[in-house]
Amino acid sequence: MTKRMSKEEKRVTELVRKRMKESRSTELLGCEVESVHRWRAIFRLDVRPRHKQIHGVVRGGILAALADTTAAIAAYTAVPRGTEIATVELTINYLEPVPGGRIKADARVLRVGRNFIVAECEILNEDGSLAAKLLLTFGATAGHSLHR
Asked: How many angstroms separate the CA atoms of 135 and 121, rounded?
C-alpha cells in the first residue's frame, strides 16, 4: 500500500497488533498485522513449512483462516463500539498455488447493514499475483468492540 497512515490509523494498527497477541490461533497461524484503516485491513504471513501440504504449497485452510482473520478486523473498523461479529459465510476461489515467501491478505468492507457486514479479501503471492479471492459475510450484534 503506497498511502501513508494517519496518526489514527497508526494508533488503531498498534491496538490491533496488541489484541492479536492475545489470540492463540493467530499465534499458531503466524500472521502479522501490516496496517488497519477504516473499512480495510492488511495482514501478512511469512510462509513456513508448517503451512504447507504434501505437494509443497500452502494449504487452502491456512489461506482461508488468514483471510477470515483479516476481513474480521476490517469489519470491526466499520461497526459501532460494542458490536460483536461472527463469520456467517465465506466463499473462496483458489486462483493459483502459494509456494512460499511473504503473502498478503488485503481485506475491504463492501457493505455494512444493520445485522450483516459483507467484505472481500484478496490473498497475494509475494510477487503480487492474485492467489485467492474471498467474499465473506459477518453477522453483527451488540456486545464487543475492537476498542476496549
From this structure: 7
**Model confidence pLDDT, tens digit, residues 10-59:** 888 888 888 877 877 888 899 999 999 999 999 999 999 999 999 999 99
Distance CA 120, CA 106 (A): 8
Cα pseudo-dihedral 110, 32, 122, 87, rounded to 10: -50
Under the phi-then-psi rule, with left for phi > 0, alpha for psi from -120 to 50, and beta for the rest, what region is 43?
Answer: beta
- CA dist., res. 33 & res. 59, Å (int): 20
User: Quick one: which of 132, 135, 146 has its CA closest to 62?
Assistant: 132
Residue 107 CB neighbour total at 10 angstroms: 28
pTM, rounded to two decimals: 0.88
